[in-house]
Amino acid sequence: MDKVKLGNTGIEISPIGLGTVKFGRNMCVKYPENFELPSYEELTEILALAKSLGINMLDTAPAYGTSEQRLGALLSGQRDDWVIIGKAGEEFQDGKSSYNFTPDHFKRSLERSLTRLNTGYIDVFLIHSDGLDMDILQKDELIKTMHEFKEQGLVKAIGASTKTADGGAKALELMDVVMATYTKDYIDEKPVLDYALKHNKGVILKKVLSSGHDNNIGDAMRFAFNHKGVSGVIIGTINLEHLKQNVETAEKLL
User: Is-above-0.90 flag for pTM?
Assistant: First the structure.
């Protein structure tokens, strides 16, 4: 797959990225089938296949169980080969999510993520919204802190994983990248994509396959990439055949 520009960040990504929820968490997830967490050997095979198929984008978060820690071990010696999307704001413990959007928490969370991932920087660092996007984005000190991370070289680009159209557009106004939802069955956040296209900002789509509930991969991807404001999509899988199929489908459309 040819790489594409992520808005005006200077970062080049594969149009398909690999989501890593299933690398580290199988509790309280919305997938249609239960699953066991893969072994390190299985994850090594998944990442090797992803790289061979041209994927360079990985999506993780503290809320994804042990995903960060496992990636830190798995990516040893190959950090420069990957664009890592990280997040802060949501924590997952004892089967429950909690949220903290204070600057102090974000500083501690980023430091912890850097340690877990065994890296000196995260490529794209996002606010992991609880859905109250506008309330979060009105926290001036938090947005200032996000920009300070970028100035300090701890992250290359900043943004938010949002859940509303207003929030997504506001995040792009204030920062560089948004992770949004846009499917043929849910177009509420289309204004975010329109804003990104107009202002050369980065948009990465999540839940393109509706958390595994949409089996028509071709139609789902065709719809996603039909909007020119979309830079890339994140699809989570721990199935080698599904990974191959996802990339083959995307290559036919791009």
Answer: yes
